[in-house]
Amino acid sequence: MKLQYSIIFIIVVVSSIISTTALASPSDNFYKENGEIFDDWDICRTRGTQQDGFFQYLSKRDFRPVIAFESLGGNADKAFQLGQGFIADYSDPTQRAEQIFNYVRNKIRYSSDQEQFGFPDFAQNADELIETISVEGLTYGDCEDYAILLAIMFKGAGLRSAIALVPNHAGALVHLPGYVRANRLISLDDESGWVWAEATGRKNRLGWMPEQFIMDPVIAYEVTAETITAPEQPRKLPTVVIQKGGNRGFQAFPLFGVFLLMWLIPIFLRRH
Questions:
Q1: What's 92's DSSP letter?
Q2: What is the pTM of this model?
Q3: CA distance 9 to 150
Q4: How far is Cα 75 from Cα 80, in angstroms, rounded to an integer?
Q5: Per-chain mean pLDDT for the chain
Q6: What angle (nearest 5°) sits at the alpha carbon of residue 13, between those of residues 8 and 17?
Q7: Do 78 and 25 form a contact (C-beta atoms < 8 A)?
Q8: In whole angstroms, what is the distance from residue 159 CA to residue 216 CA?
Q9: Domains and CATH numbers, the chain
């Protein structure tokens, strides 16, 4: 009887590790270095600053949202393709943009990175968000996650888009000249017609910008077909980034831990 309970316990532990939702698309490999989580493009997911950060934020006027390029150009995948699907359904660009906005607003539940991952920052790329939505029906994220997904889907739908920053906040922009529902008119590189997309609130509408940001300076980076490639380098010890359901938690569980448990089971059985 003790043997049976021991076997059941081991199976439950292994199953709980394997069955939780892992971020896996398109970045299949994560590794941990100096307390930070990196993906297989060597982009730091837990920090937006510096050259290896997910936003490459260097100053108040200089940033490059490199994490968006994991879902553009040669890396275009689920999120970009989902955006493309809106073209056939909505021929009018304004209606198309509004429907994409509503999709992202309704499919993501706001959750801070601290609550969800245990880090002050943890950026997800657009395809990881869509992968979770396709499996669970919705996903969780904070402002940069909303902004990244919106920008990629807008771009896939044939609309010009950008990722924008105001102090301590990220949003998306979509180019819709003449859009009358915006509460702030935004110009990017002296070009007017850019509309703020703030999907973090369940009742928000396209074009509404939170009042606390109305007077703030906006810096933005228009996304294009720019792409990045994974560097060729010695293999680093991989870490699986796991998200749990509900309020979401974070576990960084080395792959060798799973293999060790699977290896110990037959040894345990032989001894009994």
A1: S
A2: 0.82
A3: 43
A4: 9
A5: 85
A6: 145
A7: yes
A8: 25
A9: 29-222 (3.10.620)
Q: Return the residue matching tokens 């698309």.
A: 25
Instruction: For tokens 């059985």, name the residue.
Output: 269
What sign does the dihedral 85-89-95-101 (CA atoms) show? Answer: negative
CA distance 245 to 21: 8
Looking at the DSSP bridge assignments, the partners of residue 36 are: 33
Burial 118-133 (b: 16+ CB within 10 A, else e): ebebbbbbbbbbbbbb
Residue 51 in 3-state DSSP?
A: coil
Q: Are 125 and 77 in contact (CB under 8 A)?
A: no
Mind listing the pLDDT tens digit for each residue in 106-154? Answer: 999 999 999 999 999 999 999 999 999 999 999 999 999 999 999 999 9
Q: How far is CA 198 from CA 161, 211, 240, in A?
A: 13, 12, 31
d(CA 146, CA 43): 19
> What is the three-class DSSP state of 256?
helix
Under DSSP, is residue 31 helix (H, G, I), strand (E, B) or coil? strand
Asked if pLDDT for residue 19 goes beyond 60, the answer is no
So what's the pLDDT on residue 12?
41
Number of residues written out for the chain: 272
Strands (E), the chain: 21-22, 30-33, 36-39, 108-110, 139-141, 161-166, 169-175, 186-188, 191-197, 219-222, 238-243, 250-254
Specify the pairing of strand 169-175 against strand 161-166. antiparallel
